């Protein structure tokens, strides 16, 4: 077996190791929602809708101290080539919870006691990195809904393919089998650089992990700029209309 | 609104302005020397006070607001009215303009009736309403529809200029609730629908400069005839900004 040096490592789609897929963001795509956004990265498309703050029902789940964030992640049955069974699954409930945990630290929900903010994330096309795309879209949708927030959240998945650290894995790269195999590390962080969500699936050395976090930091900065632009542009769009 | 203080779109976590002698207003926070936005909206600086004007999101009730809501429930001492907020609003029997017998509550308002009410207190338990002032109470005739509550100031216009134009051209009485519900009452249903179309036009073009002139133009184009109408009463017109 040939062991490739990290300089010579080539990604299946010819990207550089620190190069993100072509990505795009849009705000205000669902007229009936209080806030909505779309985030697209390569062939992964996530749409998020925010409803509320509204009264929490049933009453026994109300929290009189602060509001609740309730996220629902759903992958549409047509989002992958092999149709997936619609409805909640073990995976989607887990990612819903992860999305909540990634976003809650920046939200100022103490102003909305006994209330709930509903975030619905739908993946309409999937090609790896759906949870990160979902978090990016949800963060924009929450801002668009006018929920008080301390900061924005951007999310990206960093991966280790054999020995090389690369950013924003595609499905093809996620299934990489050579050498040490693939390691997937989705990371979410605020604009100020605090990490709100971190997952690791695979094996990695501490030193390389720090490298991966640094790479995520740089990539999140790029994503933040796009999120910011999308939010600002949504006003100008209405001006032209 | 015209002079130097320019308005810019800000996103949560963004620094609006840097300097020692600025004061943080609504939707902002002071972090060291920086004034940071806590929500998405238009940032404005006036007399060293920096605030963010919301552009989206649900209606936030304020004391003194005149709103339109639907009677949901009759209790032994008042009515529960849905005004589009998470907290239910309560209109106690004591806040009616004349004496009402406790077993004749439905003479004033039945379940399903729509009324113009004023918020007179917001406390920990909920919102308290009153119909004691002039122009408040049950709606018997006309049409009621909802627009985005963030566009209410645009529909009213500077010192009621916009609403005055619509009244003059359509010969209708118009009451705008701060929660986005609008009640139109005219002699003919055609007039009412015409006024509704005009208001929907305003909400579509809400970010345009010189909107009042555009609306006059729209009326001329759509065959509106200006009439001198002295019947209207001024109400529901406090502009929060």
Stretches with pLDDT under 50, minimum 5 residues of chain B: 232-241
Beta strand count of chain A:
9
What is the CA-atom radius of gyration of chain B, in angstroms?
20 Å
Architecture per CATH nomenclature, i.e. the level-2 architecture of the largest domain in chain B: 2-Layer Sandwich
Q: Please, could you describe this protein's structure?
A:
The complex is a heterodimer of chains A (241) and B (241). Chain A has a single domain (23-240), classed as GHMP Kinase, N-terminal domain (Ribosomal Protein S5, domain 2, 2-Layer Sandwich), CATH 3.30.230.70. In chain A, helix 1 (90-103) crosses helix 2 (130-144) and helix 2 packs across helix 4 (206-240). Chain A has 241 residues and is an alpha+beta fold. Helices cover 28% and strands 29% of the residues of chain A. In chain A, the strands form 2 sheets. Chain A has a 5-stranded mixed sheet with strand order 1-2-3-5-4. The termini of chain A are far apart. Chain B folds into 3 domains: 8-54, OB fold (Dihydrolipoamide Acetyltransferase, E2P), CATH 2.40.50; 66-138, Nucleic acid-binding proteins (OB fold (Dihydrolipoamide Acetyltransferase, E2P), Beta Barrel), CATH 2.40.50.140; 143-221, Ribosomal Protein S8, Chain: A, domain 1, CATH 3.30.1370.10. In chain B, 19% of the residues lie in helices and 33% in strands. The longest helix of chain B is centred in the C-terminal third of the chain and has 16 residues, at 189-204. Chain B is flat, with a radius of gyration of 20 Å. Classes of the chains: A alpha+beta (241), B alpha+beta (241). Chain A binds chain B through residues 34-35, 52-55, 106, 108, 112, 114-115, 143-152, 190-192, 227-228, 231-232, 235, 238-239, 241, and chain B through 9, 11-14, 27, 29, 38-41, 54-58, 86-88, 204-208.
What keyword list fits this structure?
heterodimer; A: 241 residues; alpha+beta; Ribosomal Protein S5, domain 2; 5-stranded mixed β-sheet; 4-stranded antiparallel β-sheet; globular; disordered N terminus; B: 241 residues; OB fold (Dihydrolipoamide Acetyltransferase, E2P); Ribosomal Protein S8, Chain: A, domain 1; 3 domains; 5-stranded mixed barrel; 4-stranded mixed β-sheet; 16 strands; flat; disordered C terminus
């Amino acid at each position: 077996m040939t062991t490739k040096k990290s300089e010579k490592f080539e990604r299946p789609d010819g990207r550089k190791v620190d190069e993100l897929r072509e990505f795009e963001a849009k705000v205000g795509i669902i007229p009936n929602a209080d806030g909505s956004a779309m985030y697209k990265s390569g062939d992964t498309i996530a749409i998020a809708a925010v409803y509320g703050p509204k009264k929490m029902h049933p009453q026994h789940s109300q929290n009189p101290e602060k509001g609740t964030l309730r996220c629902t992640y759903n992958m549409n049955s047509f989002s992958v080539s092999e149709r997936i069974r619609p409805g909640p699954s073990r995976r989607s409930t887990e990612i819903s919870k992860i999305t909540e945990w990634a976003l809650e630290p920046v939200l100022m929900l103490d102003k909305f006691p006994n209330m709930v903010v509903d975030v619905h994330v739908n993946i309409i096309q999937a090609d790896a990195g759906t949870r990160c795309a979902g978090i990016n879209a949800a963060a924009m949708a929450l801002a668009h809904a006018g929920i008080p927030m301390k900061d924005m959240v951007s999310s990206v998945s960093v991966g280790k393919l054999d020995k090389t650290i690369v950013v924003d894995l595609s499905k093809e790269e996620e299934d990489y089998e050579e050498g040490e195999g693939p390691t997937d590390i989705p990371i979410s962080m605020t604009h100020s650089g605090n990490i709100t969500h971190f997952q690791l699936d695979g094996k990695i050395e501490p030193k390389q992990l720090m490298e991966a976090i640094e790479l995520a930091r740089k990539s999140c900065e790029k994503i933040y700029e796009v999120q910011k632009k999308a939010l600002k542009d949504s006003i100008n769009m209405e001006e032209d209309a | 609104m015209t002079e130097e203080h320019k308005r810019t779109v800000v996103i949560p976590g963004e620094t609006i302005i840097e300097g020692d002698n600025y004061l943080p207003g609504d939707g902002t926070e002071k972090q060291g020397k920086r004034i940071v936005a806590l929500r998405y909206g238009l940032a404005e600086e006036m007399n060293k006070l920096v605030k963010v004007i919301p552009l989206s999101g649900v209606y936030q009730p304020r004391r003194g607001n005149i709103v339109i809501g639907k009677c949901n429930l009759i209790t032994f001492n008042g009515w529960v009215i849905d005004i589009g907020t998470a907290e239910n609003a309560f209109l106690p029997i004591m806040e009616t303009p004349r004496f009402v017998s406790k077993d004749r509550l439905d003479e004033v308002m039945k379940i399903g009736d729509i009324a113009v009410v004023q918020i007179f207190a917001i406390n920990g338990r909920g919102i308290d309403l009153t119909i004691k002032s002039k122009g408040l109470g049950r709606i018997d005739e006309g049409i009621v529809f909802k627009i985005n509550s963030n566009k209410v100031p645009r529909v009213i216009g500077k010192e009621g200029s916009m609403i005055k134009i619509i009244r003059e051209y359509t010969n209708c009485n118009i009451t705008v609730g701060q929660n986005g519900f609008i009640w139109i009452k005219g002699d003919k249903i055609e007039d009412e629908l015409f006024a509704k179309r005009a208001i929907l036009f305003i909400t579509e073009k809400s970010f345009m400069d010189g909107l009042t002139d555009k609306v006059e133009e729209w009326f001329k184009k759509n065959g509106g005839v200006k009439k001198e109408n002295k019947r209207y009463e001024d109400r529901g017109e406090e502009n929060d900004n």
